[in-house]
Amino acid sequence: MPGPRWSGDPDTPELTDNLARLYPQVLAHAASGDAPDMELVCAWHEKMHEGIASPSPAYIGRFRGSNHTDLLDFENQIGGVPGTRSYLVWGEVQKLIGWLAGELERIEQETAPSSVERDMAALELAATVHGEWVRIHPFVNANGRTARLWVLWICARFDIPPLLRIRPRPDKPYGTVSFSSMAGDHSQMVTLLKQEYAALP
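and the corresponding C-alpha cells:
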C-alpha cells in the first residue's frame, strides 16, 4: 500500500527561509563545475523541507518507488496525466542526470564561453531538464520547485542570470507550459526561457 497523499503546496515562512538558505548552495555547486548527481537533488529536497511536516518522513529526499512501504507503489498524476510509474522512477532519474552531465560537457566543449550560441544551448538544456523532471515527477511533492532549481542551476553554470523564481510559482503562462511537458513536449518551455532571456536588462 502506498503512503498517504501529500496534497497542497502552501507558502510558509519555514519554506521561504529554507529556500533562501538553499538557493546560494545551488548556485555555489553550479559554479564549482562539479557534476550533478542523484544525491545532489535529494539533498535539495531535504533542505527545502527542513522543519516542515509531511504525511510521511519517507517522502523527504527520496523518490517514488524507493524501498519503503510508503513509496514503493506510490503513483501520481497531474491534471489527469500520470507521472512515470514508480518502479521506473529511479532509472528514469538516473538516465536524465547522466544525460545532463554529458550535455554539460558537450556544450562546454563545442561552444565559446560567454557566447549567444552557448547561452541558447544552455536554455534548451534547462528547458528539457525542467520538462523531464516534471514528466517523471520523481518526488511525492515539490517536483515543480525542484524542476525550477534545475533551471537556476543550469543558468548559473553558464553565467546566465536567473530566469525563473522558485517561489511563488511563476505567473502564466508557466503553468500551461509546464503541463505540456507531462506529455514530453518541452518546446514551449524552451520558448518561454528564451523569451525571459531576451527580456534581461
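(Above: one complete record from the training split.) The chain has seven helices and two strands.
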